Amino acid sequence: MKLEGMTTWVAAAALGIATLAMTPTSAAQAGEAQAGETHVASDRLAPGDGRFVFDDWAGPALRIWTHAPENVGPATPIVIVMHGRGRDADRYRDEWRDLAEQHGFILAVPEFDAERFPGANAYNHGYFRDKQGALRPRPQWSFSAIEPLFDDLKRRSGSQVEGYGLYGHSAGAQFVHRFVLLTPDARYRVAISANAGSYAFPDLTQNYPFGLEGAPVEAAGLEAALQKPLVLLLGTADTDPAHPSLPHGRNADAQGPHRLARGEAFHAAGQTQAERSGVRFGWRVTYAPGIAHDNGGMASFAAPILAGQAK
After folding, report:
1. Is there a contact between 14 and 3 (Cβ–Cβ < 8 Å)?
2. Alpha-carbon gap, residue 43 to 48, rounded angstroms
3. Which residues lie below 8 Å from residue 244, measured CB to CB, with a gap of 6+?
């Protein structure tokens, strides 16, 4: 901030007051740079590992964990990766780092911390309703952070790409496929939902989050979402019905005994709905042979698709 007409000591005092006024959350988010990580005052995205606080949206400030290749240009792809229920965005960045270098894309992992985005409703279900069930303003949905984050990444990096790759694993995969269903106008080139534990089936008569009844989507929006480039990336070994983080209950278990079966059932339901609506079906299933419930294992299959180098 420019402090015109103030003496040096007054400016310094004002800066000190501003520093003391930081909330604990914002101070923790700013944090200290970790080993090998770039964390500077400049808002340019430097090569290598980095981190910054993103607050250019209507929701709480988000810590963004990044990795950028050495030579970023106007055509460098941007990939946004969604973490799982552990909210460990730093681990996801680290597991994707080498793939970002290998395939030459800018990697960004937003951290939706459990304090300000508690539970599945506030993160992977989109946070479009509050605890009392009232509809929240659309700009404050957790889904609504992604598009302005993409614009911010373009500004910081100099990339001029028109769309981004979006990937999520586990709870992040729940975020991604519901994001596709509820934000059909988003600018992603491809979205990958990898090993979700449960799904919002494309059914306007089944209650959300297992269907779309009660969600802010109508028939036209659903038809648009069915035509979008959504990839269901499924690990062929993610078949443990007793996995500790696999959702259970009447609605979840009706989708299948394990994640592999549930992903296939979700894709089949989408295809049926597209045929019933008379629209082109844009979703597809891709398999990761021998991979169980492991983001690092799934990432190597997802990265070429996100970078536009494979189908």
Report:
1. yes
2. 15
3. none
Mean pLDDT by 10 residues, the chain (311 residues): 35 36 38 52 86 97 97 96 97 98 98 97 98 96 98 97 98 98 97 98 98 97 98 98 98 98 98 98 98 98 88 55
- Cross-strand bridge partners of residue 49: 37, 67
Q: How far apart are CA 307 and CA 189, in angstroms?
A: 10
Three-class SS of residue 76?
Answer: coil
Report whether 105 contacts 135 (CB < 8 A).
Answer: no
The answer to whether residue 24 sits within a structural domain is: yes
Residue 220 DSSP SS3: helix
145 and 10 within one domain:
no
Check if the beta carbon of residue 85 is closer than 8 Å to that of residue 119. Answer: no
Q: Are residues 4 and 50 in the same domain?
A: no
Identify whether residues 14 and 121 lie together within a single domain: no
How many distinct structural domains can be found in the chain?
A: 2
Q: Which domain does 9 fall in, by range? A: 1-30
Same domain for 16 and 145, yes or no, is: no
